[in-house]
Give the backbone structure.
Amino acid sequence: MDRDSTETVRRLTEEYGSWFAHDDRLAQGRLSGELHPFEHLFSPTRINGVTLKNRIVMAPMGNISVADESGRPSDRMVRYFAERARGGAGLLTSGLVPVGQRVDPTVTERGDLSYFPRLDRSRTVFSGWRDIAAACHAFGARFFVQLTAGLGRVGSPECLLTKHRLPVSASWNPNFYTSALPCRPLSGHECRTIVRAAGQAAADAQAMQIDGVYLHGHEGYLLDQLTSPAFNRRRFGRYADWQRFGLELVGEIRRRTGDRYPIMYRIDLTTALDETYGARLKSVASLRRFAAERTAEMTLGFMANLVKAGVDAFDVDLGCYDNWWLPHPPTFMPPGCFLEVARVAREYLRQHGVTSNAGFEVPVAAVGKLGNPDLCEQALRDEDCDLVMLGRPLLCDPDWPLKAYAGRIDEIVPCIGDQEGCVNEFVEGGHPQCAVNPRTGFEDVFAPDLPVVARPRRVAVVGAGPSGIACACAAARRGHKVTVFEREERPGGMLVPGSVPRAKLDVGNYLRYLEGSLQRSAREHDLELRLGAAASAGQLEQEAFDTVVTCTGGELARPPIAGIDGPHVVWAVDLLRRPALADGARQVVVVGGGAVGCETAFWLAAEHDKQVTVVEMLPQLMTGNCTANRGYLLHYLEARGVKLLNCARLRSVDDSGVTVVRNVSPTVPDPYVTWTPLLPANVRNPLARALRVVDAQETIVADLVVLATGLVPAAGLHAECVRRHVAPEVYNIGDSFCVGRVFDAVRAGFVLGRTL
Ligand SMILES: Cc1cc2nc3c(=O)[nH]c(=O)nc-3n(C[C@H](O)[C@H](O)[C@H](O)COP(=O)(O)O)c2cc1C
Ligand code: SF4
């Protein structure tokens, strides 16, 4: 089993970079509804003393900055859960709720403020938890609270400046964000303080009518740090035994809550650091100490011991912060990426006859990119898992279970894996939202139904990209008479070229969903879609609309570079639309190392076998993108041999390739680093190394040059419409207002459409 399960992890981490070459893997991600009525998915089951009405579990997703200042779940948070309970999930789980406030300085901020909801503090916070539990029970759903020991080395280093305290960990470990900052080992007394606090939190949860507790033992958080020899290298004392802290935590909770109270545990089969970084575990200073990770076999043995201590159910994933694309799988990861991991754990528990103290087989939930109901049903049929956990799919569409049950598969709003609204939003200081569902995190602001207007207006929407479609569909649902003009033959705007790489299957799913939404709106409401029709200001004026909304997207801004008009120079979006433009080219230079440039480079290398170099002006590539998405691309670009040149400016293009001026100073950062994240732009890092400039000219041979240097708003039509007063109301949204993300575009379209 040792070699087998360890080999499985190694194979999986390799396959994550190439799965999209296989049609059967792609098919697993396409929503078809073939296995409806999904009998396994909608069959009941139990976790210790609690019955679940179906096998659908909402994954824990940090309820960051949505509780009141005291830590009491707010009305917004109650409604967020109520909506997902109404949507049909059998079990909902909260995001992480720290119990180690007295010990881990990173879980609270200066002034004892906390962006996490709290359960530890006082009776003041209790009522919000009772409200969530009651809201879930009203729809026949169960609710577990996820308790975390703390963040440890993955907590914010700011505590050094704001509290003059070092972050903590199991042993002396580098802080994840600022590896020069050490995290000190917890004392045995502090560990016991956390154990007692967890017991109290569980007893309080039980009193709040919460149906069970769920322990946050994965992804390299403090509980994982204490229970993995990669991070826990203590040589003396009680917690030098890497299993002890986890076992004591579970034992204490069991002691405080009685025999029938469900305890679920989330664990990574391994942190997969060895499989991800191999030799780098010896050569990179901040990774060096983590060489002895908990192997898959060690984890399985630990899981059996956790069951003896009182655990009733598990879910299992892979990875940690230092390879964040694993626990937070982005677009490019395969559908059902951890199903095999769940299967390994489930088989081990069955084969070793491990049953819970209550006498049941121990259910294992699978998690990770399970947004396709067919895939979930098949996994349950194949006994890969006993439960399926959906995180982001339920942010995108809280009604996923209801729609799956009813067979309304084409109405499910699919996740695009960009992590802009959910993960990045809270990393940057907001709260979790969703790029494709503007109501997520705003359930208290936007009611589910749109009020129908008394006096319908004639609305023109020019441009059927994501903002135009969101606007048009919302306005049509309100009863307006909507005409959508799209100059291309297919709606979707930039999503059309954006969905060409096979690795971006998720975007293809969303594109099909948007097309379906337009068709449904045309059938059910007063919406006319005119494809291949570029509206002019004159035409809009002539048709006398009451409202004109321009969402005409962005246009390419050709940089003033010698030779840029050469025949072998193409725009990334044009190349994605017409991949044949790359036929015959062997060596390709991609100019621009933002998301579009890097995704195009990966597509050319991985799907078209080209030798690719990316040229980026800035010190880092893909700045502003989610660390997980960025990490995946950097890691697998490197694996494909793609050369990344940062701090390099394009000087000229000629027949044989490009000339760049490149900073060759040793202070230029290594562009392939995935184990340390980029800090948000507004966070100062006093330990950052200053960049010196030593410029050198370099030529790069290329038979194709691909420009990914960005867009500027195509706002010409809007300006003309305003100037000519083509309608009493004229709006401009999406990229033609400000070039941005799907997240910004959809929100703008929805907000405008529902208020017209
Ligand atoms: C916004 C967001 C917040 C998350 N917060 C947590 C968390 O608090 N605790 C946790 O164990 N996992 C957390 N995760 C990980 C998810 O539970 C889940 O494992 C991951 O998103 C993969 O599942 P999915 O593909 O169904 O989204 C979070 C994920 C997202 C997207
Ligand atoms: S923001 Fe993106 S990744 Fe996150 S849930 Fe929404 S669609 Fe999925």
